[in-house]
Amino acid sequence: MMRHGNPTWLLIGTLPFALSACSSLAPLTGERFTLEGELPADFALKAQAHYDVANNCNGRSQARSFESDFQSTPQQYRFNIPVSYRDGLCAMRLGRVGLFIHGRYGDKDWQRTYDNGGLTLVETLPPGAPSFGADGTVTKQAECTWLFQLSKAHSRQGQISKLLNCKGAGAYLVADELPGKTVRLDFQMTGEERPYMRGYWIKTPSGWKPCTGRWGTQFEELCTEPPQFRTFQMNGQECTVYPNCTE
Predict the structure, then answer these.
(1) Within 10 A of 4 (CB to CB), how many other CB atoms are there?
(2) Residue 119: pLDDT band by 50, 70, 90 thresholds?
(3) Which residue, 144, 141, 148, is CA-closest to 191?
(4) The pLDDT of residue 1 is above 50
(5) What is the pLDDT of residues 81-97, one digit of tens each?
(6) How far apart are CA 21 and CA 18, in angstroms?
(7) Residue 52: HSE in the Cβ half-sphere, 13 Å Cα cutoff
(8) Are 226 and 213 in contact (CB under 8 A)?
(9) What is the value of pTM for the model shown?
(10) What angle do CA 69, 92, 131 make, to 5 degrees?
(11) Of the candidates 146, 161, 156, which has an alpha carbon nearest to the alpha carbon of residue 218?
């Protein structure tokens, strides 16, 4: 599920936080694997590793975050994520890794959004899932696309806003094979931008035109036959087509 957010708090490194009765400042000294890859310009990534208690310790699940901040050019990221570690008397073992892929399409706080992905730990790989090669690496590629719409926010009605859609942003991994291995997950922008809602915009030789219909609202509406079009705001201009603004 796609979500919106203003992740102004992204930091490179690790940020421990705990839901545990054990210490939240436990050192990460156990077995690890590497999550690495490439991010497009104006992207950031947060990997949130979730851990379960693996012994009879009186503790609870914990989570630790690994983050790469926005850069204006493509960047390489690399996280060394523990597979297991000890927190006092608690033996903690990795259960899953959630991924938050952040993208920005402008310089305003509201011009940021994100999509989700994840690394799922399993006992055996499902059919068709790639396995680690002889070099100890598994490689996957996520393809991301911008989806545009007219903003639903009252203060930005009639302006273009975007959502991020990333396909293939994750992998199945055999838990017992993970220590010492490398998971390479590259992200790339692919294809042209398209409307978030089908049937609400019509593509013309000059670009996409938003429809209005029987209601005449501030938002795009389902196209009628024959179609009726409305204007919208982009970069302080009144526009009739996206992304060219004028026909």
Answers:
(1) 13
(2) very high
(3) 144
(4) no
(5) 999 999 889 999 999 99
(6) 8
(7) 5
(8) no
(9) 0.82
(10) 70
(11) 156
